[in-house]
Amino acid sequence: MAEFNHDESAIGRFYNELTYDIPYDLWLDIISHFKGNSGSVLDIGCGTGRLTSKLNFQTRYGVDISAPMLEIAKRENSDINYYQGDMRNFKLDMTFDMIVATVDVLNYLEDEEAFITTLKNVNDHLNDDGVFIFDIHSKYKMENDFNDMIYTDDTEHITYIWHALKGEAPLSAVHEMTYFVRNDDGLYQRMDETYIQRTYEHKDVIKMIEKAGLYLDTAFSDFDVKNSVTTVCDRIFYIVKKAL
Length: 244
What we know:
Largest sheet: 7 strands, mixed
CATH class of the largest domain: Alpha Beta
Number of strands: 11
CATH topology of the largest domain: Rossmann fold
Shape: globular
């Protein structure tokens, strides 16, 4: 999992500002495509609730490990049920028609054991005819976009330098983040954070899905249900159901 204190992290405090360019509407289109008659949804890794708040379901729940993000989510969306918990072992006393884990949430799991454990936990919270949707970085993206690359951005309250390095584990990346947070007096405070992501070969993801008692209904890439999974795609989407 991420190697920083979620309660003190800059990304926890300024997540909405840092992620202004995330195309949530594209995820919403995919969720809507597979929604069917689903009445309840659980958003794993919901963060500040930006996606959760836009989900058109009668009952909406969100789970995240970051207390600062959940404080923002609860303040802005009081009609949604938010809980703090680790995606590997959170426990809710209910099951859902649909569960989603978007924006490469599962890439923060450190190894196959954690990945399978999380999928099993999803299985425990999914209705028998429910649907689980998640997406991860592809092998191609991990090897090309996160291989000694530097990215920067500047917003109203925070500036960052992001150094993406190849990790020690197979198909992993170390993200070294340096933030400069603007204080009320106009001076900047520096904050440094490091977190790790890891992805897997498409065939290995399918095996882990099956080990968790689920099965792959369909897979596609790059926000288009018509796009097959290729060796040069950036993001892979998985539509998963219970193996009854």
